[in-house]
Write a structure and sequence with these properties.
With 328 residues, this protein is an alpha+beta fold. It has seven helices and 15 strands. The strands form four sheets. It has a six-stranded antiparallel beta sheet, with no helix packed on it. A four-stranded antiparallel beta sheet has the order 1-15-9-10, with no helix packed on it. A three-stranded antiparallel beta sheet has the order 2-13-12. β9 (172-179) and β10 (182-185) form a beta hairpin. It starts with a helix and ends with a helix.
Length: 328
Amino acid sequence: MTGLDFVKRALRHINSYQSGETIAPADAQDVLDVGNSILDMWSTDKLAVFGSNEDIFAWIVGQNQYRIGNPTCTSLGLPVFTGTVTGGSKVITGVTQIPSGLIAGTSFNQVGAGSTLTDSQNLFPTNTYCTAFNAGAQTVTMSANATSNSQGLDQVTYTLPGDFPISRPLRITHGFTRINQLDFTLDVTDTQDRYLEVLYKAQPGPWPTIAWYNNLMPYGVLSVYQTPGQSAEVHLFTDTILTALTLGGTVVLPQGYTFALEWAMAEMIWPDYWGEKPVPNHIQKNAAAGLAMVKALNAKPAARAAYDRELIRGNRPDGGWITHGGFR
């Protein structure tokens, strides 16, 4: 399914579209924006989110705070840059104004990442990033060749990667450091109060043991203790952020989400098309049932409690009970 298919279904559910009719592009975009708002809202609800992403990075020796995020320049209110693109070449020429936030790097999603580049004429392969730039020569070098020549000047959007250059997560649920194939737990559930109780936060150690994630904007900040003494591999697990729809782009969602989303869109757009008329009961019922099914699918059973066996073992066979009374 595409984003346009969701638009058609939502409009059909409110009797504003029949199969085969043409939808004005502006109307289609308006309904699509509603769908994206719903997905954005669902991303904040843990039960509405499917799965968990595992991202692998490396600790930076001597650093105990990490910015997590990779926002685009436009989301930060910064302008795009323009240049001429040549098919089969990695070099963008005629860049009269190199952005101050443009970063050259060695990957698109690892420590030391360069700015991810996208363009208005869709000439860059996916995950293309900046590897170098030269203000004097007015050039920006990419990690991949452009697919064809630009028609006039091409507009290029770039990202400003943080220390861990992934989409800013809403929640970090688990983590560990891997050394010699052994995984050492990183407690990512620490609260701000607990982290602030740490007396000496710069305490060096082989790897961090606890972390507090502060989901600021535009970068989340991960504060860890102890400060890593080696660039070991760190694995972070984050809740999936539901991907925004585009009219022509294919949408891949688990079972149940299609029904939930199309009826949620119908419920949300009803006032835009029918004013103050009450939303029909069947639309409200289907929207609620769809979301309830999604939440039931994503619900996790409660974790089994684990105790130190020294705390719960019986004392009946312990002949020394008479001397310590169980307190030792």
